[in-house]
Amino acid sequence: MPSIMQEKKRLLTGLQPSGTLHIGNYFGALKPFIDLYDSYDSYLMVVDYHALTTMRNPEQLQENIRNIVKDYLAAGVDSEKITLFKQSDIAQHTELAWIFECLVTVPVLMQAHSYKDKVAKGLEANAGLFNYPMLMAADILLYDTQVVPVGEDQRQHIEYAREAANKFNNAFGKTFTAPTEHIIDGVGVVPGTDGKKMSKSYGNTIPLFGTKDEISKAVMGIVTDSFGGRPENVYAIHTLFRPESELDALYEEKEGNYKALKEVLIEDMEMLVAPMRERRDGITDEQIREVLASGAEKARIYAEAKMQDVKNKIGVTV
Ligand code: ADP
Ligand code: TRP
Question: Domains, the chain, ranges and CATH?
Fold first, then answer.
């Protein structure tokens, strides 16, 4: 059984290759993963089948996949130390999702905030979007994951993974481990340039790997609706880059001078991003293919064993 072989606890997260990574993705999900991965048996995915719920352009999807792997590596992920792979390379994810779809009810899935929000925003209500939490449950449970670093908006999705695990365990005997979300206080919801949650779909992002000009443009566009006092939206984003104790003095010194404060924020971002950007420029497409191939090889070992156990339990092996 795979779980007996496991020594360290397992950490797993994934991001959709559906656009350009922004600082909300970095501080909400990727950095927490990077900070923790050494102490765990760690898995990092590119969840490309999830992106298919909204994407219809194959060239764009391919480019986004290559870009997100570059982002992972440039941000500090060492692919030798973790299992870095692409969801679509491991067929067991979609296979297990189907089994969960046969266990979790439609009324329970209908409560998903994320589904309702996306449809309210005008996204097509396709069945994949509706079943999205079951594929995510499979991503997590297939590897007996204990800890899942994500932003606040994914909290309910981890609950769905626990629901799928419970349903299966109750029906067929203890098989899956209930995962826990890892959401960092104060970082679970990084605000965007308009003060609302930063999100690709709101057009309010600051790109993580933008050029200095792109980052400057986004920062200069942060809405400052305070009247002479502290520009709260700028300050909130700035806390990601400098301790509040330092910021308080700075914001007092430059009170009311929004432009100067934004310029300091740009420089602080640049200090973090410039070395990562340089590293990113040196990563080739060939390297990416190699990293993904070797990650898939590692992930497959566990996924195949776990899926065989599932098949034995549900009664499809004779
Ligand atoms: P988006 O909302 O931009 O489409 P995703 O849904 O692809 O972002 O999110 C990828 C990961 O980044 C998830 O773990 C999500 O919780 C996290 N995340 C996204 N936006 C934020 C944010 N504004 N603050 C904190 N974490 C975020
Ligand atoms: N739903 C997540 C998001 O939109 C992406 C995701 C898919 C994921 N499978 C996962 C995150 C498994 C953590 C673990 O950001």
Answer: 10-188+285-314 (3.40.50.620), 210-280 (no CATH)
